[in-house]
Amino acid sequence: MIIVLLLALVAACSAVDVVTLVQDLESGTRGSQQLSREFVEFAGAVYLSARGPLGQELYRHTPAGDLVSLADFSHAVQLTMTSSGARV
């Protein structure tokens, strides 16, 4: 599943030089309280996890305002970005 998520991200942003874009992007609820969404910005786009029609999904939001579903996943996956040495 992590490999599929990584391939979807690389294909979506056409950034084959990215070292790693995987590991845990979590969102959900605690009790009745909605938790804030985690996100990562890369190459002018923002990647985030949110509840969608297929369950927990990974989305890409571009500066033009487009919101595209890239993948769905049933368990929490964290998104890590190490191309600049920063980890989210």
Explain the overall architecture.
With 88 residues, this protein is an alpha+beta fold. The relative contact order is 0.26. 14% of the residues lie in helices and 33% in strands. It is built from one helix and six strands, in the order αββββββ. The protein has one domain (2-72). The chain has one helix at 2-13, and strands at residues 29-30, 33-34, 39-42, 45-52, 55-61, 67-72. It is globular.
Task: Quickly list its features.
4-stranded antiparallel β-sheet, single chain, two-stranded antiparallel ribbon, 88 residues, 14% helix, 1 helix, alpha+beta
Mean pLDDT: 57
How far is the first residue's CA from the last residue's CA? 20 Å
> What order do the SSEs take from the amino end to the carboxyl end, as H and E?
HEEEEEE
Coarse shape: globular
**% residues in beta strands:** 25-35%
- Share of helical residues: 10-25%
Low-pLDDT segments, ≥5 res: 14-36, 75-88
- Helix count? 1
Strand order, sheet with most strands: 3-4-5-6
**Total beta strands:** 6
How many individual domains?
A: 1
User: Given the helix and strand composition, which structural class is it?
Assistant: alpha+beta
Radius of gyration, in angstroms, nearest whole number: 13 Å
Biggest sheet architecture: 4 strands, antiparallel
